[in-house]
Amino acid sequence: MRTFLPVFTIALAAAALMALSGCDGTPVETSAVPARAPTPSAKEFSGQVDVGGGRKIYLHCKGSGSPTVILESGFHDSSDTWNMTDTRPPVPKSPAVFPGVAMFTRVCEYDRPGTIRYTEPPTLTARSTPVTGARSLTGMVSDLNKLLTAAKVPGPYLLVGHSFGGMVTRLYAQIHPKQTAGLVFVDAFGTNMKPFFGKDWTAYLELLNHPGTAFDAKRGFETIDVDGAIEAVTGAQPMPDVPLAVLSKAKPFAVPPRTPKSLLTSLERAWPKVQQTLVDLGPQTPHFLATGSDHYVQMHDPDLTISAIRLVVGRVKAGS
Q: Is residue 99 within 8 Å of 82, Cβ to Cβ?
């Protein structure tokens, strides 16, 4: 695994509650790949989609079938994490989650603005129009809805969220229940984190938004307000009654070297409670423990992640 990856394994943040406009920052000029007209009937689509307001978002879809699976990356991560593996025997090296899911249903991934491409060297994505300022969770959900609508991606969707991406998919399901067929939480962030940190909560939020990388001060780098995101989720309507699955790490978080020990202790103490709360969101929700994996379960256990998604796809089809 590339050496920069552990810096972002602590990145589980959420966002301030702002207007439902879908763009809570100012677009930044960027040179990006040319936009293409979405072709939902094609087997594979890769390109930028115009979501309005002078902004474009990169979308990649592949495979056929329903429900359509939407992959939502964690804080700071582009869609690259769904196409990479870092496995040890007996876990197979391939396929990664995105191509693996495409073998049995339609699957889409996208780049949120200001997220990191796992290139050599790593860069901020130029595939989605950057924005400045802290993003709101409601704005991110609105972006996702605009993207799926503009690209004519057929719903309802099985939403798969890693880390903070679980907050995005969860609020999407609460706001758009009729467009939600199911959810899979991949070591996802929850709403019950704050009490475990006490007076260290502010320091934890600062570390999430500024983990000490070369991108911290870069214009357009993704920053989010956790407190606002928690308010957005807890204040929204209840989750729809859809099939769920939860995957959780077994190994400790890999964190930046400057992380205070008290923060890491609080995080590890909180995490099992966070995961159990996600399991409790629905009846008979399977809970998979990714033995040997840290926070990036989709990379260390891609076959387990694919299997969990396939299970929920099966339950969605059986229920419909």
A: no
